[in-house]
Amino acid sequence: MARGDGRLNHDILPGESGPQDACGVFGVWAPGEEVGKLAYYGLYALQHRGQESAGIATSDGSRMLVYKDMGLVSQVFDETSLGSLTGHLAIGHTRYSTTGASRWENAQPTLGGTEHHTIALAHNGNLINTEELREVLASRHVDGFGDAGGEMRRGNTTDTAIVTSLLGSRGEDVSLEEAALADLPLIKGAYCFVFMDEQTLYAARDPQGVRPLVIGRLERGWVVASETAALDIVGASFVREVEPGELVVIDESGLRAQSFAEPVRKGCVFEYVYLARPDTTIAGRGVHAARVEMGRRLAQEHPVEADMVMPSPESGTPAAIGYAEQSGIAYGQGLVKNAYVGRTFIAPSQTIRQLGIRLKLNPLREVIKGQRLVVVDDSIVRGNTQRALVRMLREAGAAEVHVRISSPPVRWPCFYGIDFASRAELIATGLDVEAVRQAIGADSLGYISEEGMVGATEQPRDRLCTACFSGEYPLGVPRDQEKVLGTPHEADTPRGATV
Ligand code: SF4
User: Which among 34, 190, 334, 386 could bridge 416 via Cys, Cβ 3.0 to 4.6 Å?
Assistant: First the structure.
């Protein structure tokens, strides 16, 4: 499908989905502004982080409204629904499901609260101690989850509903701010929460800062968002990141922040490789620049004699630019994508499915014919997309096809908010580089080293999570996933405490 910023992701083969981000979150506190519409445009900028459902909650200080549905932001909202979302604060969410099925009950923002205030909450990430949190909830409400468990009782099966219930389960005399400061330290995993009651906007980030979350300033208010690109789109200026382990509170007295846990930074390296928009900046490093640098380092590590460097459309583009710059080989476009490719509700029949990659890409035969090509992509998950791409280029007359990948082999699942294929489906789990090369039919294959990828982010190695490449899980592994992980080889044993 097309990503929110127009780039194709790995899903250029029908039925073949690429790495999916767990969600985008957005919040705005701005009296006098159309907060519902600001949230809409903020979510529009974050569409690439989740395409299954979208939702916005607004409040005018005394009454909260929520509108959410399955589909893309542009499908869920129209002028009428946005017109009813009035108030001076809002939160919004675009969802891709990591826990809980993709259905309406699990769409966000989720609702909860006490007799004194309502809570609406949006989450980007994935928790790894939900069983413990359920036990905490049960201990606070002996006869079930009580009023605070509203969405859970109605069938919401997400970790987000558990947190929403948790924040409302300390009783009506406890403010949301007090509840958050007390309960956030109990929550383990990767999370960025943007939440609100009738008067106040809150944002919180896990102590490892795995997923990005930033604060922006409007002339008459404040914005929080998963990526800086969403600040740009609503005209907010970047102020700073929400610090790992920090709770930010925004109301008529302005913005105040409190730390609820010692920060131990472990930002997701895959945000730099593929997930975030190229026009986003994470921890001071521009994502586009990081990807170009990955391409340069890839060229140094895996040079090859060739006539043209081209990207795998289109997420491989910045790394292909870097590869071409470093190698001196001309950069070119060998494929044209269907400009209006996107999510369709028309399920392809078997006959159409067999057209595969051709539904979305068409080769430029006169550019490709007789050429030795370097095709640069950001990652290989199952390998089916690259196999189809290589075959298409050969059929179009390419003399040689050399594949270069701007991340190391993906060999481990992510428990912190990104949905790759299952471990058994990851092509690099069972095969070495030569076997993957043969499987995709390339003349040569080169992956950037972990050092090269990390170096391009300009972040210290010990401040990044690289678990899907290294098997080192800095936040630990959920208890019920130990068996799923399996340990086919000694060297493959994942490292990280079980939570
Ligand atoms: S496992 Fe990979 S995708 Fe998941 S947080 Fe770590 S680096 Fe990011």
Answer: 190
Q: Which of 407, 414, 459 to mutate to test the pocket of ligand 1 (most atoms within 8 A of CB)?
A: 414
pLDDT score of 188 more than 90: yes
Q: In the annotation, is 192 catalytic?
A: no
pLDDT(12) > 80: no
Q: Which residue has the higher pLDDT, 491 or 396?
A: 396
- Look at the alpha carbons of 38, 39, 40, 44 in this order and tell me if their dihedral is positive or negative: positive
- Whether the predicted pLDDT of 251 surpasses 50: yes
Beta-bridge mates of residue 281: 286
How much distance in Å is there from the Cα of 499 to the middle of ligand 1? 17
Q: For residue 273, give the DSSP letter.
A: I
- Give distance in angstroms: CA of 219 to centre of ligand 1: 35
Q: Name the residue with the closest Cα to ligand 1, atom 5.
A: 268
Which position has the higher pLDDT, 456 or 171?
A: 456
Q: Would you say the CB of residue 416 lies under 6 angstroms from ligand 1?
A: yes
Q: How far is the C-alpha of 318 from the C-alpha of 312, rounded, in Å? A: 10
User: Ligand 1: which residue has its CA nearest to atom 4?
Assistant: 414
Q: Alpha-carbon distance 113 to 37, whole Å?
A: 25
Q: What is the tens place of the pLDDT at every residue in 140-149? A: 873 444 455 5
Q: 240 pairs with which residues across the strands?
A: 215
Question: How far is the CA of 53 from the CAs of 50, 223, 244, 277, 435, in angstroms?
Answer: 7, 21, 27, 19, 38
Candidates 418, 420, 453, 459: which one to mutate for ligand 1, based on the most atoms within 8 Å of Cβ? 418
Structural tokens at position 109: 């923002």
**For ligand 1, atom 2, which residue shows the shortest CA distance?**
468
d(CA 298, CA 443) in angstroms, rounded, equals 17
Q: How many other β-carbons are positioned within 10 Å of the β-carbon of residue 190?
A: 27
| Per-residue pLDDT reduced to its tens digit, 379-389 | 998 898 899 99
For residue 323 and ligand 1, the question of a CB distance below 6 A is answered with no
